[in-house]
Write a structure and sequence with these properties.
With about 325 residues, this protein is an alpha/beta fold. The chain has three domains: about 130 residues, FAD/NAD(P)-binding domain, CATH 3.50.50; about 120 residues, FAD/NAD(P)-binding domain, CATH 3.50.50; about 55 residues, no CATH class. The protein is about 20% helix and about 30% strand. It has seven helices and 26 strands. A five-stranded parallel beta sheet has the order 10-17-11-12-13. A four-stranded parallel beta sheet has the order 3-2-1-7, with helices on one face. A hairpin with a 2-residue loop joins strand 5 and strand 6. Helix 1 packs across helix 2, helix 1 runs parallel beside helix 7 and helix 4 runs parallel beside helix 5. It is globular, with a radius of gyration of 20 Å. It starts with a strand and ends with a strand.
Length: about 325
């Protein structure tokens, strides 16, 4: 079974051939973030992939998984709690890093939104503010910014690490202001009035927290897509799910991939040693005795025999 019906969960269910796969979703509508994301990566729109994968796929919506056990998972829905049997893969997506994690101090006024809340408001036709600061530069924040620039007086992206698939120039062409640095302090009595960064003070009335981390709320071992590492490209999310499906279908003892470089699906077996690296183009990584320079973001590589390990070269 797959818990989560976002792009990676749907792609995994589609990739597992010859077995019946049940997909569960806590929200009322399947598809996750990419169901309404039309901002392209390399000409590909996530919403189109979601529509294609949902065709003919039954998803049980409105049920929340609250516990995993040996051989299954427990859910809570309108009709109460129930248990479903099967091998569990969590496709629960990303979460926003909190203000405490990010070291953002000061007041806690209205106008501070996690990315997913701001995204939901935008999809309902509402704006989160007139002058909006988005903290974090990745596909998900840029997609939100591309909508907000149409209805807001000012949109600023402040970031610590660059996107692996989008350039700053791309954001500037949309009319988004871009700065590099950290949010240090938020001020405002009833609503956000001022955000202090490393080098400036921004007069904004909304702050969107868009620095992301994988989300594994149930402590599952098998994770898909953004539940394991944040992947910005919809095509690469689909590819990552196919890698996981290949690993599961190949069988054999799973061995954890070690080292300082994110490598999805996090495990290999004797029969399947292909992993996707969570780095951008031009990164140098060590695979056993070999050093590889990546030619694209989220490149897939074959790990050599022996202890599975990927390190920064």
């Amino acid at each position: 079974m797959v818990i989560g019906s976002g792009l990676s969960g749907l792609a995994l269910a589609d990739s597992l051939r010859g077995v019946e796969v049940e997909v569960y979703e806590v929200r009322r509508e399947p598809g996750g973030f990419f169901a309404r994301d039309d901002y392209p990566v390399d000409g590909v729109r996530g919403s189109e992939l979601v529509s294609r994968l949902l065709a003919g796929r039954k998803v049980r919506t409105g049920v929340a998984a609250f516990r995993l056990d040996e051989g299954g998972a427990w859910f809570l829905g309108e009709e109460g709690a129930f248990r479903a049997e099967g091998r569990v893969v969590l496709a629960t997506g990303f979460r926003e890093r909190t203000a405490v994690e990010l070291g953002v101090y000061g007041c806690r006024p209205a106008g501070v939104f996690p990315l997913t809340a701001a995204w939901d408001f935008a999809n309902m036709g509402y704006s989160v503010g007139d002058r909006v600061l988005i903290y974090g530069f990745n596909h998900y924040t840029l997609s939100l910014a591309s909508r907000l620039v149409k209805v807001c007086d000012k949109v600023v992206i402040l970031y610590r690490e660059p996107s692996l698939v989008h350039s700053v120039d791309e954001a500037l062409r949309l009319g988004v202001e871009v700065e590099r640095g950290r949010v240090r302090r938020v001020e405002g009595r009833d609503r956000v009035e001022l955000v202090k960064t490393d080098s400036s003070e921004l007069r904004v009335d909304a702050l969107v927290l868009g620095e992301l981390a994988p989300w594994n709320p149930l402590g599952g071992r098998l994770l898909a897509g953004n539940a394991f590492m944040v992947i910005e490209s919809p095509l690469k999310l689909v590819e990552s799910s196919r890698l996981l499906a290949e690993l599961l279908e190949a069988g054999g003892e799973l061995r954890r991939v070690e080292g300082g470089v994110p490598a999805f699906p996090g495990y290999v077996s004797e029969k399947h040693r292909r992993v996707m690296l969570g780095v951008g183009r031009g990164a140098r990584v060590r695979l056993g005795d070999r050093i590889v320079t990546t030619e694209e973001p989220y490149q897939v590589v074959e790990l050599p025999p022996g202890k599975p390990r990927v390190e920064v070269a």
